[in-house]
What we know:
Elements: E1 2-3, H1 21-29, H2 36-40, E2 42-44, H3 54-65, H4 69-79
Antiparallel strand pairs: 1-2
Amino acid sequence: MIGGSCPANIAITFTSLTNNLHRRVFQHRNQEFEGFTDSYDAVRLVYWECFDDVHKSIAREKLLKNWRREKKLWPIARMNLRFRDLAADWYKIEGINPRRG
């Protein structure tokens, strides 16, 4: 998740682990949690990785969290050069319930 409104203003990156990406993005966008993403308005999904093994996912999360911000932006730019919100249209359909999975 990234805060700010455009790539030039990206100052905050947020790395997290979840078993339900749609639900987690929804929770952050609706400020269901107090904390880092709420404080920094980190609500744009610009990159994600998927793993079939939770241990690999945890190892990758730990690795990414230790990277400098500039290094974290490299894989994002390779996948999403314009840093557009990849979840921008996920909740526009009336009646969608991200809690279901």
